[in-house]
Amino acid sequence: MSCYIDAFMELFWHSILPHIEIDQIASQTGNPLDNIMAGAFVLVKQGFRLDASTQMRNFVYKNIKELYFPKQPPYEQGNMYDVVDFAMDYMEQASEQFRAMFQYKCSRYNMCFEDTEHCWFMPDDTVRNTPLFITFIPSVVDKFHLSTSSDQSAHAITHLIGYPRLKQQCIYCQKLAYQYKLPHNDPAFVFVIDKLGAVPNRTDNIIFPYIIQLYSQRYQLHAMIHSTSRTGIHYKTTAVIHNNGGCFLACLDNLSKPGITVITENVNEFYFHFSSNHSSLQKKLKII
């Protein structure tokens, strides 16, 4: 019943940590969650992936329930929990330096509804962090037709990041004005949550592109965590794994042997192979 831990860690070990200096971050921050992530990754690189999983599980059961997650009921051994809840809890308690790689920093920007040349920043506004996880809720899925086309995914994400809100009067003409969030950075990675599979009577899935342009940065789909049913039951990770100068797409599942199954070396066909070979799985969490 630990797959919610395993799936999230497999995503990090194979699709994120090979591209960052986690040892340096952990030594600078001293954060316990940064440190355990770095230590487990050493085991993975040495070929002891299952030992790394055991280390992470023991850390969660022994320490996190008392020290780090006061808002969440304890993660107890033998019980099943949602991978998204665990991911949010873990990232919330990681160091600010670690979280910064996944987070947009935005300032508030105002624009007149009648005259787009009437625009201004909040005079005393500070740059603020957006939520770590961008969530596709059903209303957004339907608004941008994400279950029938991948073309609108970037628009949906930028809409959720900069979500316009109706504010007070325009300071120039006193007409209505909208307020947007204007990003100041391009994070190294972006988490996207797909909540469509948790909605009763919805059988469609979000079509997500392999390459996506968000603001000035192009992102590539790195990994996806998915469950075997709408209520969770069992979580698996599909990830792009880099190896000896090349890369391949694999499914990681610690309940099966050998635990890693190579799907294809054509990683640009990520979604095609996922939808064809895993049509019964409900997608939960993506990292791009």
Automatic annotation (TrEMBL):
Q: What is this protein called?
A: Uncharacterized protein
Organism of origin is: Phascolomyces articulosus
Top-rank taxon: Eukaryota
